[in-house]
Every structure is written in C-alpha cells, then in structure tokens.
Amino acid sequence: MAQKKDVWQGTLALMVLKTLDTLGPLHGYGIARRIEQTSGDLLAVNYGTLYPALLKLEQEGYVSSEWGVSDNNRKAKYYKLTRAGKKQLEREARDWEQATAIVARFLAPGEEVS
Amino acid sequence: MRWLRAFALRVAGLFAKSQRDREFAAELDGHLQMHMEDNMRSGMTPENARRQALLKLGGVEPTKELYRERRGLPLLETVLQDLRYATRTLRKNPGFTLIAVLTLALGIGANTAIFSMVNALLLRPYNFPELDRLVRVWENRGIDEGADARFIAPGDAVDLQSGAPVFDALTIYKCGDFNLNTEGNVQPVRGCHVSAKFFDVLGVSPALGRAFSVPEEQPGADQVAVVSNAFWQRRFAGDAALLGKVIQMNGKKYTVVGIMPRGFDYPVPMELWVPLALSPAEKTDRAKLSLESLGRLKPGINVAQARSAMDSVSQRLQQEYPATNANRRAEMLQLRRELYLYTLPLFLLLQAAAVFVLLLACANLANLLFARIFGRQKEIAVRTALGAGRWRLARLFVTETLLLSCTAGVVAVAVSFWSVKVLRTSIAPSWTMWVPGWDGIQVDRTVLAFTLLLIAVVGLLFGFGTVLHSSQAQPYTTLKEAGRGPMLGSKGRLRSALVVAQVVFALVLLVCAGLTTQAFLRLADVYQGFQAANVLRTEVRLPEKSYPENSQIASFYDRMLRGSASLPGASAAALVTNSPASNVDNESTFFTINGRATAKASEAPSADLQISSSDYFSVLRIPLVAGRTYTLADNANAARVAVISRSMAARYWTNGDELGQQIKLGAFDSTEAWMTIVGVVEDVRQNWWNRTNRPTIYEPFFQAHKRSMVFLMRVASNPEGYASAVRDVVRGIDDQIALTGVGTLETEITDSIAIIRIMGVLMTLFGCVALALSSVGVYGVLAESVARRIPEIGVRLALGAEPRDVMKLVWGQAVKLTGIGLAIGVPIAFAVNRAMSSLIFGIVSINLLLLAGFTLLLLLVALAAAYIPARRAMRVDPMVALRYE
C-alpha cells in the first residue's frame, strides 16, 4: 500500500506540473478534472488528495497561487507553473521517460530475443 | 535547498492558522460549487450533485485534515502541545515542581561547585608551564621518625643532578624572613635564597629585568635581588625605577635586577628572592639536610623512572660516604601532589559528601516521580479509554519529566556558576592567599555536562516508567477503583513500600553524609596539645646594633615579660622561637645523649629545638607529663636544663628513666654544654602538615638567648584588646622597638589552615543540605500518600469517626511505615559504614548519638508529613473530601 502511495504522489506531482504546463494557470477543480480525464481512474475516488500535493509543490516553489475569477464568475485559487517548476517538469519527465524506457525494454516480450 | 524552503514555509504554517484555515475553506467551497454546477449540467438533482461532489472530494473535513498536515509540522505541533500541557500540569502542582526542581538544582549545583574546586586546586594549583614535570626532591635519613620537613644536603643535590640524568635542571633554595631596612625602619619580608636555575626550573622569567646568573651564586657576587609583583606594588607603588635600585636587607645592600610577573608565587606568598651563595665547604656538605629542592624532569621521563635513577645515586652515595649517608635515600613527589598531600583525604571526603548529596537528590526525585505515577492512574486510564496509544502517552509523560529535568537543569547551571562565584569571592583573601590555585577555580564543564546528562536520563527513565507501569493496568479496573480509596488493594501496598524505601534511602545517605562530615572534622582538628583561645601573639626583633650582648637581650625580654604579665587581666606571658601554626617548621637539630654518643653523622639522632621562656607551657596550657618545667631561676648562671616532649622521651628512654639524663645539642663532637632533662611535656602539633609528633627539645630562653622571638600572652578575654598595652610596655623599655605580626593565636591558626577551614564550611553546608533534602524527600512521599487517603478520611468522618481517632490512624500508619524504613535502614547504614571505612581514609564508626539524632529527625518529619495533609482533610467538608481527587 505504502509503496503504491509513494509512486502515486510522485506521479500526481508530475501530472499536476504537466497539466499546468499544457493548460496554463488553472484552479484545483480544473486540474483534478483534467487529470481524471487523461488518467482515467487514478484520481477517480479522491479529489481531496490533490490539495496537499498542490501545497507541497507550492512550498517547494514549483507552482505559485493567486486568487482569481473562474469562467462562470466564481472566486477560485489559480495555480501557475513557476520557472523552477518548468525546469522540474522537464527533469522529471526526462527521468520518467528514461525509467519507462528501461522498464519497457526489460519487460519487452522475450520472444524477440529468442 | 528545496526542502529547506519547504521546511521554512511549513514552520511559517504553524502561525496564523485560522486565517489559513479560512482561505482553504474558501478554496474548497469554490471547488465544490464548480463540481456541483458541472454535475447539475449533466442532469443531476442539486442534492445528488452535491453528494457526488463531496464523495469525489473524499469529504470536506478529511481533506482539510490532510491539507493541515502538509501545511505545518505535525510532529512539532504535538510536541508543542505536550509541552503546553506539561507546563500546565507542573504549574498546577507548584509544591511538587518546586521541590523537584530545587532538589535537583541543589544536588547538581553543589556537586559541580565542589568538583570544580577540587579539580582546579588539585590539577592546576600553579600556573607554571608543564606543571607535571615539576618535582620536589628531598632526602630521608632513614632514622628520623615523623619528619615532615623535606630537605636535602647540598653535596647530595649536586650528585643527584649529575648522577641521575633525569632532570632538565634541579634547583636548591632556602627560605626565611629578611629584615628590610627602609630609611631606618626595619620590616620583615618573606624571601628565599635560591640557586640561579630556580626561575628556569619553574619556567617563569621576570616580567621586568632579569633572573640570576650562575656567577652570582658566588659569595660576594650575590648581592642582587628579584622581587615579586606584590612587593613592587605595595612597597614601591609599581615604580619602574625600582630596577637597578639598591635595597638594604639584613645589613647588606642588594641591587634589584628583576621583577616577577603578577601572580608568581612560589613557595607560598614570597616577596623576594636572592641568590643562594654557598661557600665551597657548604657546597659539598653532606652532614645536614639543610636545603629545599625542586626539579624539572626531562620531557618523557616519568616519576617512577626518575625515582629509580635517584635510588641508584642514593645507593652509590651510601657506599661512598657511609659516615654521613648510610640509610639515606632521595625521595621525589610531583609538586602538584606534594602541595595537597596532607589535605587530599579531606578533598576526597568532601567529594564523597557531594556525591551523597547528589544521590540523595536523585533518590528524592525518583521517589517523588514514582509517587506521582500512582497519582495519575486515573488520568492515564481515561486517556487510554479515549483511544490514546501507548506511544502517544509515553511521549506525553516523557515530555513532562524532561521539562521538569530541563528546568532543574537550567536552575542547576545557574546555581553552579553562582556557587562557584560565591566560593571564589566570599572567602577572605587572607585565607585564600595560602591556597595555591584558588584564583583558577571555575565551573568544570565536564562535570556540569555529566550531571546534566544524568538528570536527562532520570527524566527519560521516569517518563517511560510512568507509561510502562500504567500499561499493565486495565483502564476499566483503574477507572472503577479510582473513586475508592486507593489505599485499598495492591496499590496501597506499593505506595507503602515507596514510603519505606524513601526512609531507607534518606537514612542511609544521611548517615553517609554524617560519616564524611564526622571524619572531616576529626581530620581537620589538626592542632593538638595546646589551647589557642585568648592568646595574644606578636613578633619582637631586637637589632644587633643596640643589643650586642646576651645580658642586654635578657634584660629587655625580662622587663617585657614582667611588664605584660602584670597587666590587669593577663595571666601569663612567654617567649618562644616558633609559635604553633606559624606555617614554618621548627628548627631541627642533631643531639647527643650522654653515654650514647655515636661517631657517625648518619646515626646522630635529630629533634626539633624550641627555645622558650618558662611560662610558655602555662600560656599555651601544654600539660606536664613528668618532672618539672623550667623556671626563671634556670638562667644563665644556673645549671643548664632542658624539657623534652613525650614522644622524644618514649623514643629514646623506653624504660621511662629520662629525668636526670643529660643531652647536648649537635653531634658527638659538638662543644655545646650538657643539659639535664628536668621534665617531659605533652606533644604539640606544631603545623597542620605534621602528621606525627616530632621529638622536641625545649631549652630555657634565659640560658640560650635569641634576639628574634615570638611573644605570647594569655589573657582572660579579648586578646586583641591588649595589643596597645603590650606596645606601651615595650615602648617603656625601648621606644625604638616595633612589634610586628600582632594578632591572636586563634587567627593565626585560622589563616594557617585556610583551605581546611574553607572545606569545613563547605562540609557543614553539605550536612545541612543533606538534612534538608532527606527531610523534604520523606515529607514529600509521605504527604502524597496521606493525601491519597483524603477520600477515605472523608468517608470515615461522614460515618461519624472522631477526628482524633482518624488522626491516630493516619499517624499510626506513618509511624509504622517510617519505623519499618528505619528498621531496614539502620543495619544497611552500619553495613555501608563498614564498607566506607575500608574505602575512604579517615572514616570511623558512626557516632551513635548522631545516628539516634537522624532517626529521631526522620520520625519527626514523618509525623509532620502525616499531620499536615490529614489536618487539612479533617477541616474540609466530608462531601468535598469524598469528591477530592
């Protein structure tokens, strides 16, 4: 369980950063919807876990927040990628790609080799 | 660095919590609204839309909780919470807190102060570089009993230095008083004749000018002087022109060539040093041990190596010069060890007492904390029932005990620094100037750190102890029992055991403290054989110029003695060469018994020589053992007589036929006149370092005149008051004679054993602290246990019991428990006593009266401890008492 959660938190942070990078400044609800749309059931149960993750990113200086007004005229807190966040996203994405590439090669069907 | 930024922000998150809460609530609210709108757009009813949004979120409160955990530092927050709670608990029980903190602070503070003092004095008494390489060297003739003086023969010193290549340098010196003549005014100053290497050996050079050169050791070239900083400041007001100036001493002119740095003091407060110029004959003399010696060992040579090197030289000398050196051996001791050689047992006793006080403090705290554990069963049960885990509870209680020990620690540090400061400053300089190293006393960090660590450990142990103990009990049972009197059942027995244990602890440690104090006082009672109270003392010096003849000296002193003895209130007056407690050894002399002459110097017996007038024995109340003391009739015209000390008689006339025997001063070939022994007097402990009684010969003053004498006078009371009257008497005889060192013999003694007196004061303080601590400990534990019975007392009173009967019951219980404690404690105390007397020098059996006193004290404390809470219980309304917690 714990292991899955750690992976989940790291992944969540990466997804948040990517979402903000793609869509620009966005509020928590928007980020949650976007992640749900792209990742399927990963966030399906619990939007709430997104907020501590956002807070952590903000404490680390990867995102900044600001109160703004939503499309339908509602006050909402908007999160924005900082320059440090952009760099972090690149770094993490690269690491992730490397890791997946290695794992993918490793898990690649044995038929090919034999 | 990212984590640091995050950490800083999380610390910031500990503040302005409500504002941050509101902000997040608003954000969540917005989130839910947006979600609901989306849901309604997809066709849900408002209620369902809201429900689904909440479900998706995972609930508002859990989300807030998660968010809060990330926002601040949850661990730190609970610690702060525990701290706040602990502070509140301790504040709610000010009595307990105060006793615990004071007990610990006192124990630790006193301990640190004592260990700091002892370490400073024993390890760093002098500021000389590489102090451990400095050694005192002296010779033992092998046939002198009880000789504490450490002297060396000049001829042997030369051989020791060349024959035992263990010394960088060896210096010889001889100290005494000089008569400094400034413009016709003669003043005594303390000084030493030292060899040229003296300052090299000590490793200190003059602050101004130079030290002595080897050519200045030649008689005739030796009229140069090095003076102390104090001498320079006091007598010449720090005038740099003193260098090169000529001062007159003992009728000779000395050129001042050097001034020593401030604080240079060896041996004891000295004012000046001049070269030791020995004639060629004196240089090779081996007959008499006449000089002191100090060496600096070569680097890397230890004392054992140096000793064996010296032994082989001694053996060679024994064979080469059997007439003088048979049986003679050179001995050696590190300077810093020599200094406190005789006071070392006292230091150890003092340290032992300090340790006992600390143990008493720890035992007290332990028992108090134990008692509190019982008192908190209900609280722990409630917390457990409400779901507190063991780990969480442990943290709570450990926080509390640690807070307690930290508070005590802070107070203890303050007490340590304060007490060391008080110790250093509150004792008169006239005492401390005799204590080398006193100015170097400071708080010893190692000792302080150790004691602080000790209380931290105590704190932790008891914090965990509380939880471990409570985790055995089922919360349900405890809660059920809590309403009833906790004296019932096994808990009551445990608490009784605690009271008994405290009494045992208190008694045993009190006895330990008492034993050390008792041993200390016995050892510190260093002057024996005479009575010093109500004696005036002063020094008289007759100048040679105006008193060249013995008859003139005799006439002056005769008139002075008669004049003073006839003063109203004066009972007797006398003269002596060296008064007790002068911090100077008696002159030592060879002597020869008529009919038992030995031809070799190495076999000549030696004794201390005191010249005194006839009333000396009555002034100091020295008891006569046999025969008679001399009288005024034993003068220059009468037959020569002598009085000897009891130990001399016992050593040389084993069958007790000493009266009527004849002795003469000097070896077999001396030309001194034979003296008949007319009496034997009790031994006198001359100086505090004398451990055994030296054989002593007393010679009547009017048969052996000397110009410089110590005058002693016994009066009815207030001896200082007679100083001016005695001055008048002297002025009436010769107005040119000034008295020096006027004071009481008691003050003289006090000053001479300054360090012992200081330690005596500390020891007494320790005794008081030990008494107070053990009383407080017994009181605390017993009072707590009686307070637990207050509901029971309430029930008894409500059911119609007489207050008197209840009091009898409570008292009976207290007396029973204390009695059991004492019954267990007394045999343990005796066993500890036996163990201690084999371990620590000077400990003897406990004074039974003292033991009885301690027992009685603890019993009284127990009665008071039972009485006060019980009285309080009886005054309150039974209904209140029943509800009392």
> Which chains share the greatest interface?
A-B, 24 and 28 residues
Terminus-to-terminus distance of chain B: 53 Å
State the end-to-end distance of chain A.
Answer: 36 Å
In the sheet with the most strands of chain B, the strands line up as: 2-3-8-5-7-6
CATH superfamily of chain A: Winged helix-like DNA-binding domain superfamily/Winged helix DNA-binding domain
Find the count of extended strands of chain A (DSSP E, 2+ residues).
3
Share of β-strand residues of chain B: 15-25%
Categorize the overall geometry of chain B.
elongated
Our count of helices of chain A gives 4
Quickly count the domains of chain B: 4
Biggest sheet: strand arrangement of chain A: 1-3-2
Main beta-sheet strand count, sense and barrel state of chain B: 6 strands, mixed, barrel
Helix/strand order of chain A: HEHHEEH
Low-pLDDT runs of chain B: 482-489
Number of helical elements of chain B: 30
DSSP helix fraction of chain A: 55-70%
Helix content class of chain B: 40-55%
- Low-pLDDT segments of chain A: none
Rg over alpha carbons of chain B = 39 Å
Protein traits:
heterodimer, A: 114 residues, alpha+beta, Arc Repressor Mutant, subunit A, three-stranded antiparallel sheet, 4 helices, 3 strands, B: 885 residues, 4 domains, six-stranded mixed beta barrel, 30 helices, 21 strands, elongated
